[in-house]
């Protein structure tokens, strides 16, 4: 990648060549929609950069962003980079103590406070005396506002560039366990993913994207922010969970990225309106096939989608097949915060369900003797911030990132993830069980929202299951509850028949809790926090195993 392909240089390119082209569409609640051309976007970023420069902070100071996705998040990044500083984005669902840890660990000099639901709890984590700037969508506060500051400062006249080697962002990992780690990326490493993605999939300014997964995560940062800056594609933002259907219908994205849990939720939403058997029947009738496909995809807002991507966690092969039956080819990708999601991506026409795709251009891959996937990517991080020891432990001596994932490759170098190295657990019979592939089998059933397979030190594995909302709503009726138990028992038999004898589960337990990001059961990208789930239900394990029931409803 050349110097001319750096993010800031692309921003200046669009400012100069397509100033009036629409870049971002931001809902402000109700019927209010704000549109940001490239001219308006860069003008506001230049004014905010002038404000940041006026503070006389040391070059390369870390500037925090605590906000849900919005246009001002991206404008803040641009302003921070123009002013010569480093962006540190925090998840908008963090607890106050984690907010404090990240800001203090990064030695942040200022914090942008934006669109947040839990600000009253989170603000206790902002170090006393830290300067803050308030976005238009932020909760009530006494901070200087974005609008006031950009009106008070002239746009930065120069167009400063940054080198490939300079630090651009610190990403604090969502982490399913332990304290977040600060992953350091340069302008070179964050540009690689978008630059190559544009080339691989011919992304242009006519493409439309919708941003709703956390921009603090590298998946969304790469697939929305960096990709749009490189390609000139238009970005629409989701207003809220309640308005998501309306937001996606407004965007009609030509490219849509999601995580497996949401792809499953979309499927369950379709099934709630049309039972699976009826839908399958209609899709097999030639006259109705195209009509039904179009109706389903239009209902999801994906009727114009030419590129559909799933990432962040393994997706069940059956789900890829289901979307393919609708005419939507899901391309699974694989990557980490530590390589800015630049590792593997499926190619159109070469998708193999159960495999996450082929190595991205310039990536070298090998499987260690222990089965761990090792990747040398041009987007590999500079290291963990202020943690040389952990950085050294994360790489082999010849520069391959230790992913912590186990995997295997086929003849086309397509990669299959077989679990996490550290997620393997041993039953009391001395056999190791990899939970992720078993969970994938369970999660394809339309009764199940998400599952967690456990059983370390126990005579056999078991699975905790959170039911899909429409199924859970039926539990109050004894007859329907009995029918659900029977169907789950059949699912248990079906899954056990497809795995090794030593992996077979003794029972399913249907939990009462809703596993959500907000209550700590899920990461911000909706992956299960295995340790939290196992610790929550550990006191009940002995009774569950003694009960000898095959389907248990948590009391």
Textual characterization of the structure:
The chain has 555 residues and is of the alpha/beta class. The chain has 3 domains: 3-236, Rossmann fold, CATH 3.40.50; 255-303 and 305-419, ANL, N-terminal domain (Rossmann fold), CATH 3.40.50.12780; 424-553, ANL, C-terminal domain (GMP Synthetase, Chain A, domain 3). Helices cover 36% and strands 21% of the residues. It has 19 helices and 26 strands. The chain has a 7-stranded mixed β-sheet with strand order 6-5-3-4-7-8-18, sandwiched between helices. Strand 16 and strand 17 form a beta hairpin. The chain is globular.
Strand ordering within the main sheet: 6-5-3-4-7-8-18
Q: What would the CATH topology of the largest domain be?
A: Rossmann fold
Integer tally of domains: 3
CATH A-level architecture of the largest domain: 3-Layer(aba) Sandwich
Nearest-integer average pLDDT: 91
Rg of Cα set: 24 Å
Task: Supply database-style keywords.
555 residues, alpha/beta, Rossmann fold, GMP Synthetase, Chain A, domain 3, seven-stranded mixed beta sheet, five-stranded mixed beta sheet, 19 helices
